[in-house]
Each structure stands twice: as structure tokens, then as C-alpha cells.
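re: ur msg from earlier - yeah i can do the iron/sulfur cluster complex, just paste it... oh wait u already did. ok heres what im feeding in:
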Amino acid sequence: MTAAYVRLCRSGLVQERIAAARQLLSPCRLCPRQCGVDRLAGERGFCGGGVLAEVASCGPHYGEEDVLVGASGSGTIFFCGCNLRCDFCQNFSLSRCRDDDCQEVSGEQLAAAMLSLQEMGCANINLVTPSHVMPQILAALPVAVAAGLSLPLVYNCGGYESVEALRLLDGIVDVYLPDAKFLRRESAIAHAGAADYPEVLVRALKEMQHQVGDLSIDADGVARRGLLVRHLLMPGAEEEAEEIFALLAREVSSGCYVNIMDQFRPCGEWSGADDAAIDSATHRRALQAAFKAGLRRLARRDSAALLRRLFGA
Ligand code: SF4
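and the outut:
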């Protein structure tokens, strides 16, 4: 199956999207923060993003959901900066652009990174924290497609997306992989300073579902197209998690593929908070709550399969 963006690039229609996306950078209204800075003139807003995208690392990743990893890993490109900058972020130095590995990349370099992941046999191109550099990613695509890129594109984002920006990705993104972090305003303010996160999230999820539908998985167990939602369980937020599951089943789709993650660990501004962890009983209760809410497609980790992939065991 040819990835949708390949057809758009070959037809040339992607150029209109690239131009429209670039316009969103000046003044910057690319995401719901609406900072209004002139990114094209080198100004930086809340996310820290500038004219060029910054990348910290690029390579096959085996820690993603089984349906994204395939036989040879998900081809991750980790972008620096973030439009959410949660206080518990596991990639704190990247989201703050403070990591020594953060390097500005041109469109050609970004395209070369995508192609190198394809050459390594990765299952997809997994764009990690892409929202604030969406125009730069878009601009790299025709270069990559002209050189043979054809892997599915995974948009691995925080869920704080403007519908205007998402519409420019219709027919470009194959798999949307948003977080559904909070549904309570007080949580969104406390952790990300984004009071409107709940309503922004709902609109974004509906748009993503409208574009790509429920997740479709091929005969090899690899995701080809659709929506995969992540929810990271937070200490003391079991009820909010249940509200999120109910929302997904009711407002998005009962066929929504959901990964309920238990790997919260104290990072960022939470570093040193010893009691901040999710135990197995909490995770089990969350899975039951999601099932009760009507969700039937819950991601499970096949550890044995992961070991076989990593070590041929
Ligand atoms: S992408 Fe960055 S600069 Fe633009 S509105 Fe969002 S946070 Fe502000």
C-alpha cells in the first residue's frame, strides 16, 4: 500500500500545504499557544522552535507499541522543543532545547534522516514531538519522496494541536499517535500551563479520527493507518483516566486503539518524588475501567516477541 503522502508529493499538491504551513509560522499560530512570534525572522515562542527544526537523535526504537515496532524497529526522529513542556517530561532536556545533542537540520538533512531509517528496515517514520516543527517536516517530504521514501508516517504528538494545522496533514500522516494527557483543566494548568488542553484535545482527536479512522494493522501485525491514542497514567489521577477512556469511547470511537501506559517515573520537575509511580494494581484497574467504558482495543506488550526481535532469542 502506497503511503498517502507519496501520492500528494508526486502530484505536486503538497506544495500548497507547505506554503500554507509556512505561513502559520509568521506570526506563529501553528499551535493553540498562538504565541504570535515571527518564527521566520528567528524569534522563538513557548516551544523554543525557530526557523529550522532541531533534532536530537534518529534511529530504530523498540520501546514503542508492538504495532509500531515491527521486525526492525520504529524509525524515530526526536525533535527538540515542545509546545507543551510538561513538568514531568521524560525527555525534559529535549523539550527545553537544553540537550547538547540538539542540532538544527535543513530540509535536506531531515529528508536524509528519514531515508536512512527506511534503509535500516524500520517499520515507519516516527516523528516524535513534531507539532511545533510541522512546516519544516512537510517541506522535507518532497525531497525524501523524490529519493524513494515510502514508509508510513507516524505523528507522535502531545495532543495539543490546532485543527487548522492538522487539516494541512490530511492525506500526509498515516498514523496519528497523540497523547491524551489530561481532561481536567486543573491538571492541564498544573502540569503544562495549558488551560485549554481538554477542549483542544477533544477537537484534535475528532479531526484525527476523521482523517485516518480506527487503526488498521496488516498481516504482519504492523500499523498501516489510523489513530492510536496513548494515555500515561499519572499518580493520583485514576478518576481522570476513567474520564479520558469514556471520552475516547463516546466521542472518538469504541474501536479506538489505546495504549494505557504505566511507565510514569519522576522526571523533570518531579525528579526525586519517591512516591510518584504507578503500581501494577493501578494499571490493572485502569485497563478494567477502559474496558468498562467500551474500549476493546487496548495495547499489550509482548515482551517475549520484543526479546526475539532484539536478540533473536
Ligand atoms: S508552535 Fe511554538 S511559537 Fe508557535 S504558537 Fe506554538 S508554542 Fe508558540
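cool cool. The chain has one domain: 4-311. ping me if u need the other ligands too
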